[in-house]
Specification:
By secondary structure, the chain is mainly beta. 13% of the residues lie in helices and 51% in strands. Strands 1, 2, 3, 4, 5, 6, 7, 8, 9 and 10 form a 10-stranded antiparallel sheet that branches.
Length: 172
């Protein structure tokens, strides 16, 4: 009886594992040979910055740069003290892109935490959900992750946004 060493089996077993892993991925992937990637919603990554100024105690107005370049406004719907020194803001955003498309956004929750600079807060959002729009954004959906700062003494904000928008077709 011939003995087979483990080193003799290692290479064929490794090859089998690679074939099963990658071959299985091809069979279950939404982009597998039998299915067009265009049959699903077309999603794109977006990112940029937003800078606004307070126009009143509860409203801001400013500009967005990056993939969603245009005008942005926010209305603070409510303010609630949070744990520690944090403050929770319920905010409704309005976003019009430079090309004239409007993003429809759900109200979002932001948490502001005071920094060591008086009147300046670090701000993070749970996420800002995109639930449609007009023009290019008609029927779109997605989410933006947003963080930044608000200087309440100067009445200014600056934020970084990053996320994904999905369209009904790839023509967008």
């Amino acid at each position: 009886m011939k003995r087979i060493s483990m080193s003799t089996l290692t290479v064929p077993i490794a090859r089998l594992v690679v074939v099963l892993l990658f071959g299985g991925t091809l069979l279950v992937s939404p982009n597998s040979f039998g299915q067009s990637p265009r049959s699903n919603a077309h999603c794109v990554q977006v990112g940029g910055t937003v800078m606004t100024n307070f126009t009143s105690q509860t409203n801001t107005l400013g500009t967005a740069t990056g993939d969603l370049k245009g005008a942005v406004a926010a209305t603070i719907l409510s303010v609630t003290p949070g744990p520690g020194n944090a403050t929770t803001f319920n905010v409704q955003h309005q976003w019009i892109t430079e090309a004239g498309g409007m993003l429809m956004l759900e109200p979002a929750t932001a948490v502001g935490v005071p920094t060591n600079v008086p009147g300046v807060f670090g701000v993070t959002y749970d996420e800002i959900r995109i639930v449609g729009g007009t023009g290019k954004y008609d029927g779109s959906h997605g989410a933006l992750r947003v963080f930044g700062a608000a200087d309440l003494q100067r009445g200014e904000t600056v934020f970084r946004y990053q996320g994904e928008i999905c369209f009904q077709s790839e023509g967008h």
